[in-house]
């Protein structure tokens, strides 16, 4: 029974999760930079809401990995929570 629980946990940990981030984007070039960085990471689906300065990412990557990746844009980034 223990091994079944472990297998179930392992299976659910690799399920893509949708996360919302605030990214200090002010223009289309900022959004393009975010797009480039996330495409380079791979394994993500995302929507950029430029007017509200938000990025929703569906991925198996950890929040820390996504924060680190978005931080490479040079923009202020914060995690808003699961979407």
UniProtKB/TrEMBL annotation:
It comes from the Eukaryota. Coiled coil: none annotated. GO terms for cellular component: cytosol. Keywords: Chaperone, Copper, Copper transport, Ion transport, Metal-binding, Transport. One of its GO terms (molecular function) is copper chaperone activity. Residues 16-78 form the HMA domain. One of its GO terms (biological process) is copper ion transport. Homodimer. Interacts with ATP7B. Interacts with ATP7A. Interacts (via dimer form) with SLC31A1 (via C-terminal domain); this interaction improves ATOX1 stability and controls intracellular Cu(I) levels. Binds and deliver cytosolic copper to the copper ATPase proteins. May be important in cellular antioxidant defense. Belongs to the ATX1 family. This is Copper transport protein ATOX1. It comes from Ovis ammon polii.
